[in-house]
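Data availability (excerpt). All sequences and predicted token strings are deposited with the supplementary files. A representative entry, histidine kinase, is shown inline so that the format can be inspected without opening the archive.
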Amino acid sequence: MREPGAGPDTFSRMRSRGPVLDVCLAAAGVVLDLLVSGKSGQSGTAPWWVMGIFSLLAGVPMGFVRRRPFAVCLHQAIFLVVCDQLGAHTSNTVQTLLPVAVAMLAYRGTWRWIVPAAVLTAVATAINLADPGIAFTSGTWYLPLGMSAVPVVIGRYLRSPIEPVSGVERRPGLDLLLAGGGVAFMVLDTWTEWNGGQLPVWAAGWFAIGCGLTAGLARSLPATAFTLQALLVLLADQNAGFAANSMQGLFLVTLGVFAMRAPWSWTAVAYLVASGVTALNTVEGELSHVTPPRVAALLAMVAAPIVIGRYVGVRRAAADLELAMAEEARQLIAERARADLLAERERIARDVHDIVAHHVAAMVLRAGAAQYAAPSGPVAEALSDIRSTGHQVLEDLRGLLNVLRDPDRAHLPVADPEEVVRDAVERMNAAGLKVELRLGPEAELAPLVTRASAARIVQEGLTNVLKHAGPGTSAVVELGVAGDSLGVNVLSGAPPGPRDALPSSGQGIAGMRERARALGGDLSAGPDGAGGWRLAATLPLERVDRVCAETSSRRRLPWWREESETS
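Structure token line:
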């Protein structure tokens, strides 16, 4: 069966862990029945080989619970009814293993299989409880319901995805479920014997509940749970015999959890302690009853949860290593992608240098040679302006090439913003415009990135005035801080006469608007109603530092984190 939503890779990994865990589960089921049935006295009423057959029939199917959980549920439900009719104490073991199979089915299967299995579990449990003479009234209906519903709830809860974290996952809800499962196990396994011991019924009930609650510590505090349960096993053996077998089962489960995380030295100590506690709980009467086969069986019974725990611990360590290797591989892919991007930027920079810089440099050299050959006057001034402009273009081009080669410098301006603005005004005045610069003193205190963007907007705005209005046009450039924003205004008057506009790509205003939006501001451009043109931009100051910090941190993040931050 394939659970909904599970990919084929996930499902195949769950199925490909080998038969070792299946053998351990089967062995644990057999050992549990030998412990429960032997302690209950079945060995005195039936031959040993009969008890062995019943133990195999109860425990071996658990080896298939991971692959065929519904079939195991069906087998255990039928076998529970058979054992109940024959009066075999194996019914106590099967009554414990059946909810485990239901929980596994709920974890891996779909509802079309879970519902029939839960119904079979409830029916078999009801038959097991009612047959010995217990009145099956409205006060006991919750027992079959709980034996079928609680495992389903636990199994479905464990289906929820668990994000890998270092150490023990901090999920108190899972600890509460374990504690509730321990209480349900203790109560359902011992409640019929509460009135047959030395303790009052209420004391016996609270003792069983307290023993079950210790299961909630097994995941987060396995050493504490192991020590506490060892004391409870000895206490139950001396004063509450009805709970000794059930407490012994929880104790062995906690031993497996402890072995899953503890080093070998502490695992060996725990094995010796658990063997001694189990021997004191199991051995009754004269020491002559202690034989080598029984000692070997006891040692094997205690070793079984340790083997399972160590195996699960190794598998978990392997899974963590696989996750770490996958994370390292993703980082390596991201670094390779970044290296490829830098290589492409380097190639573009070389192409720009070879094509553009070469021609601009040649233009500057020819303008310089022509300047010395030409007479003084407007021609010489134009050649001088061409030469200085070419030098400035080369400087800006070098800065652009540096940005292409090193993306971490993309937020840095290539020149001082105020100098860029003054230089742009001087050049436009030299080209025939009448530009007045109004630079507020507080504007120089704005963040560098904001001033650089404002300088580029001024450059583009004055270029548009020269293109569309022509020489002789009056223009005003205003830079100043108003409130928490830096205001940029480029105001141009009406052209002095008819003029054909120069060719334009139409991308100037769009580029300026995108530059302003990148800093959280806005830009508007349009006629001023008096024949002129008005370009106004507002660049917030309080968001600039945060935007730059986010840009810098995003540049240091891996590509998959960068995409999530951007979205």
